[in-house]
Amino acid sequence: MLRDFQIVGSDLFLSGLTSSHGGNLSVRLGDRLVITRRGSMLAHLESHDLIETGVWENDSGVMLASSELVVHRTIYQSSWGLAIVHCHPPCAVALSLLQDEIIPVDSEGSYLLHRVPVVETELTIGSTQMAEILSESLKEHKIVMLRGHGCFAIGHMLEEAFQWCSSLEASASIICHLHSLGGDVKDYRKGVERYGNW
Fold first, then answer.
1. What pTM was estimated for this model as a whole?
2. Distance between CA 181 and CA 129 in Å, rounded?
3. Residue 33 · residue 54 · CB < 8 Å
4. Disulfide engineering: 149 pairs with which of 21, 31, 124, 138, CB 3.0-4.6 Å?
5. Burial of 16 (0-12, 13-18, 19+ CB in 10 A)
6. CATH homologous superfamily of domain 2-197?
7. pLDDT tens digit string along 46-104?
């Protein structure tokens, strides 16, 4: 399990999806979860950076857990996810400050993500309000953007949740490039009118 955390954590940082001490990862193991330590460097995770606690209740290790523990718990309690990746992809964060959803226009993003809702809350770090809003959205979507903060993605394993984050940022980057170029997008996709409704 440590190796899975190390690979995804390193890839998140090296691909520019989060800053040195930003973001967090977790996996669910029955009624337990393992989450990255508060303030850990995702690119350099060691065994002491993984904190185990309960999905439904605290135990002695909870003080060291990520400040987003309440969010991860609530998502696990209300979704099918067995792994969560939270990061701060810069282009997607920028778009979240302008739009209420991110609809990829590239082929891969369209296929994998369809549309990514943007939700908002006044308290953007580790609040119960944030946990409730995100967990509700993740009942219907595999990745959600929190306006001005970052994305939360669920998967059956960390690699899958990481894929949604990586794909979102790639699609967001393309959209940002298109905005800088100006002009109308020439759409090529069959059934494109459905994308805004998925």
1. 0.92
2. 38
3. yes
4. 124
5. middle
6. Class II aldolase/adducin N-terminal domain (3.40.225.10)
7. 999 999 999 998 886 777 888 899 999 999 999 999 999 999 999 999 999 999 999 99
